[in-house]
Design a protein that fits this description.
227 residues, 5-stranded antiparallel beta sheet, 3-stranded mixed beta sheet
């Protein structure tokens, strides 16, 4: 077959299922951690400044997206085709690579944040018994639920497939001329197209509400430390 026979299979993350899975994943991870943590996990949790933890976690969410883009570039993506966005009022931060990239590229990109700000900090926190870092790592691991599901799905696809994103932060496309499975937990198949939209999004898009949410969190964090 020639390249002309390739089509884009469009998928969308099922936010409802992912949120449910996040809750279950979080509970399981807390239970597992309580067994291997050398101390009283619940007692140590109450010593953590919750607002500071949330604020730092939002910063880590930004780093999460930057790590995605770093992997995109390392494994062959072009920085000019990467765009970023923040809609904290919807709980969405995104990094989109608006070009066709290899299966190897997307698999590495999906795992970069999970490994560097999730798994490694989790291990360090367990070794040195740092509850703040431990809970931050757990939040980052659970926050990578969508990445994990996409990783497992793409691992099941042929090596020759290409991956791309376009103008919707919860959608992606698989470009191939081969038959692929379109049913997978946490993913909704949308349609198959010959081409995908490539509108000119700004390099960085930040909603007004994101500034407000971040400012409120900073104020609450300062108050929780001072009072």
């Amino acid at each position: 077959m020639t390249r002309d026979n390739k089509k884009y299979h469009i998928f969308e993350l099922n936010v409802g299922k992912l949120n449910l899975f996040c809750i279950v994943f979080f509970i399981l991870l807390i239970v597992l951690t309580s067994f291997i943590y050398k101390g009283n996990l619940i007692s140590d949790f109450y010593q953590v400044n919750l607002m500071l933890l949330i604020l730092v976690n939002i910063i880590m969410m930004l780093i999460h997206e930057l790590l995605h883009s770093l992997a995109y570039v390392i494994y062959g993506g072009k920085f000019k085709n990467i765009v970023y966005g923040s809609y904290l009022e919807k709980g969405v931060l995104y990094c989109l690579c608006k070009q066709n990239i290899t299966r190897k590229n997307i698999l590495n990109s999906l795992m970069f944040p999970l490994f560097y700000i999730g798994i490694i900090p989790y291990i360090i926190a367990l070794i040195f018994k740092w509850p703040f870092l431990l809970f931050l790592a757990i939040m980052n691991i659970v926050g990578a639920t969508g990445d994990i599901i996409m990783f497992i799905y793409i691992m099941s696809l042929p090596k020759e497939i290409e991956f791309t994103e376009f103008d919707n932060p919860i959608r992606f496309a698989i470009h191939t001329n081969k038959e692929i499975k379109v049913k997978f937990f946490g993913l909704d198949y949308i349609e198959t197209l010959k081409n995908v939209p490539r509108n000119d999004l700004k390099k960085v898009t930040i909603s007004k509400a994101s500034y407000i949410v971040f400012a409120i969190l900073i104020v609450l964090t300062v108050l929780s430390v001072v009072l």
